[in-house]
Amino acid sequence: MNAHRPTASTTAADSSHPVLTWEESGVRRSARWRSENGAAPPRRVEIADDRTKADAAYKLVCEGTALLWRGDFHNARQLLAALARRIDRRPRKPAPADDPARAFHLHRAAQSQRARILGMLLVPLDAQYGVPLHRAPDVRAACALAYGPAGPAPEGGGAPDGTDSVVSLRELLGLVGAYEWHRKGVEIPALGGERVHPDYGVFSPQRGEYVDLVARAPLPGQPPALAFDIGTGTGVLAAVLARRGVPRVIGTDQDPRALACARQNAERLGVADRVEIMEADLFPAGRAPLVVCNPPWVPAKPTSSVEYAVYDPNSRMLRGFLAGLPAHLTPGGEGWLILSDLAEHLGLRTRADLLALFEAAGLTVLDRLDIAPRHPRARDTTDPLHAARAAEVTSLWRLGVTAG
Question: Which of 30, 55, 145, 162 is the most exposed place for a label (fewest CB within 10 A)?
């Protein structure tokens, strides 16, 4: 590690590519800064390598100094793990057992701080998304899936050894993990064991409870001639509806990644002739006898792109879906709302609040199907939110327009 602590500054090559500059071997260097969650480039950067001690690195990153790694890639991973252990050993303010909402917010704050600190260990990428470090894996395909095709280097050139851009090691490892999910796919029992392939930043249907609910709920019209899948994501629910015999399904989303992902999955699953994917904020034009929506379950602020499928500030999507549903249902049609009650157990929304939203939208509950979670976190007693997760139930609410 350099003995001095040069200050990094940031400029913008364009609105989507901020640039990080730092001093290395007495020379001012620069490279694109990449951050999927929109984090600002670090203001201070030091060079670190295999000689860097974990305690010294921990002190620096906690003080807000990022470490740009120039050593062995495997040693960088070991340092990241060592930093994580030091963070996890720190005493935390105990969460009040009688205030689950405060416990949730304390947990989120701790997660955010942990992510910020671990995000301060940086690695270089060359112009083709290669990692110019000893024993580095080939991450080019994973980066291309997340960032798009590699582009030209920033004006003025990068650092020695071909550095074109800089990314946190934690994010890079996340890209690699997401790429493996994309490559291997997620097995969907409701599709006969066939696989859905989530793209980076698109919510993966690893928790299959909500898919199972859509697969077994009684279809109105046996089957309906048309269904809308609002916020389609990977397109898994649209595919399940098509496989159940719905001759035409329109899936909507606003995220370009989700739109491309859903179209690819429809092709892979052989339902592209029945599933149309279109860009829309919630509803497409017209009405359907069945409208399905699995909105984010927790009314809180997301901190990364993939969290938008879990956290919904002020329940925007939930409220928008319910308010607009009557205008997009044909007479006698049904809206299926798939929603976990985790927010209720966290004290972030009550059942009365949810029912009040139904009533305000002019909707009547026709039936409700419930399913308990099967994911490992529901059984993890070390999870700070274990009590809420263990009590969680996911429901499919069958909603109709209130007769008036």
Answer: 55
Nearest to 318 by CA among 356, 284, 347: 356
Q: For residue 66, which of 121, 108, 115 has the smallest C-alpha distance? A: 121
Give the residue from 236, 190, 177 showing the smallest Cα distance to 36: 177
| Residue 239 pLDDT | 98
Q: What are phi and psi of 27, to 5 degrees?
A: -120, 140
Dihedral of CA atoms 156, 161, 165, 169 in degrees, nearest 10, equals -160
List all residues 6 or more positions away from 166 whose beta carbon is below 8 Å from its beta carbon: 20, 31, 32, 33, 34, 68, 122, 123, 124, 125
Query: What are the DSSP calls for 335-359, one per residue?
Result: EEEEEESHHHHTTSS-HHHHHHHHH
Q: Any alpha helices (H) in 194-277, and if so which ranges?
A: 209-216, 236-243, 256-268
Question: What's the CA gap between 91 and 4, in Å, rounded?
Answer: 31
pLDDT at 306 over 80: no
Note if the pTM is more than 0.85.
yes
Is pLDDT larger for residue 16 or for residue 92? 92
Secondary element (H or E) of residue 395: strand 394-401
Q: Residue 154, preceding bond cis, omega within 30 degrees?
A: no
C-alpha pair distances (Å), 166 with each of 123, 178, 219: 6, 19, 50
pLDDT tens, 48-85?
A: 999 999 999 999 999 999 999 999 999 999 999 999 99
* Residue 22 contacts residue 15 (beta carbons within 8 Å): no
